[in-house]
Amino acid sequence: MKILLTGANGYIGQRLLPLLIEAGHEVVCLVRDPRRFELPESQRPHVTVAQGDLLKPESLQELPTDIEAAYYLVHSMSGDGKDFFQLEQESARHFTAYLNRTTARQVIYLSGIANDQALSVHLRSRKGVEEVLGKAQASLTVLRASIIIGSGSASFEIIRDLVEKLPVMITPRWLNSRCQPIGIRDVMFYLTSVLGNEACYGHSFDIGGPDVLTYRDMLLQLAQVRGYRRYIITVPVLTPRLSSWWLFLVTSTSFSLAQSLVESLRNDTVADPQRSIAAVLPHECMGYTEAVQLAFQRIDQNEVVSSWSDALSSGKMPRNYMDHIQIPQHGLLTDRQTLRFRRDPQQVLQNVWSIGGDRGWYKVEWLWRIRGIMDKMVGGPGLRRGRRSPTKLRAGDPLDFWRVLVADKTARRLLLYAEMKLPGEAWLQFRILDNEDGSHTLEQLAAFRPKGLAGRLYWYSLVPFHFIIFKGMIENIVQYEAPEQVPVVA
Known about the structure:
Blueprint: E1 2-6, H1 11-22, E2 26-31, E3 47-51, E4 69-72, H2 84-99, E5 106-112, H3 121-133, E6 139-145, E7 148-149, H4 154-165, E8 168-171, E9 178-179, E10 182-183, H5 184-193, E11 203-207, E12 213-214, H6 215-226, E13 231-234, H7 240-250, H8 255-264, H9 288-300, E14 333-341, H10 345-353, H11 365-377, E15 398-399, E16 402-408, E17 413-418, E18 424-434, E19 440-450, H12 452-479
Parallel strand pairs: 1-2, 1-4, 2-3, 4-5, 5-6, 6-11, 7-10, 8-13
Antiparallel strand pairs: 9-12, 14-19, 15-16, 16-17, 17-18, 18-19
């Protein structure tokens, strides 16, 4: 089939795309900016990348009309400064208008379980999108899921953060709300199995794993999997706003995501037996503990395909951030360091590619951590966001409080753009250059474009620290010897 995939850059879309290709489908990926959508060489013959923004209907005019099915995987956990509910309905209306010009017979939407009466604004919004998509000429299939457990999912990473960082947790009342978590592998099964299945046309299904748990249960069971002893104290005095700040400061999540999650967690998200998909697609879903164990297995094997932090809403990036892939030539304050070396340039390049996350920043790590804490305190992403993989980078990846703009191993160039809270814009670039005598040079460039006097004062106040950090950083990148990996026998 010829399929349109929206949200191809998202957590679900990145995992669904290779499964659709493997099944022999031709896929059109709708993305806002093709520059941040990288495809492996093996997938390119089966994928067409189309540029469009669902909030700008004029950008959808050139999309193909000969598609047979579409996936609508567009939803956000944070607003854009406007009314969140209205933005989601607007996107769905524009998409429906486009669908009605196509030959599509089916549209598939991944939504949230919304069986409570007093729904949060985000669950109401998901339900509203279902109603808009239901007006399309193509038959609508809705899969409603509760908490999705998988390596890199927002829910899993937040639960993991809480358990691994806090031996004793002071928690709000919403920890007693019930949900029905489902593993990402089972979500993928349902998303691919309903495609072209006429028994699913025009129906909404609740999908969930076999376990109905409170959020308290999930924290304690993950602690048990990890071999930790944890204590949870539930108090009634934590308001939704205080709970959001608590979640934001303790975990790697953004404040807008924390706020949305806290609001939504007051609702029970348990599947309705009347909406069960079992009669149409019999399938045995994995339990919560098994899904957690599989997620950690993927993390240990460095096989995290996608992460919630891939989304721009996980930081402070402008939507047109790929316009910054060339560092400006004027109006910059810079710190440029170079170092000649004769060791294998690929080893040095791999050290560059492994920067941040668990590896750290190669010099005075405690200063970087203080800067991360300061950033978190003023609403930035901080260092806890980490990175998707300890050794692999691609354009668009988050990297602590940076975003990867260019990750070109052939050109031996890595360019990062700062998402931390700053009175200006900042870039950090690494390049390896060849010399005529057979040696090589690592160039490290920190560039800052200040906004007004505050920006200049910020830069010059940090100059003494720059001398310590950047000079030692380039030396340690060149000299670093990665420890040998002990083979794991399955």
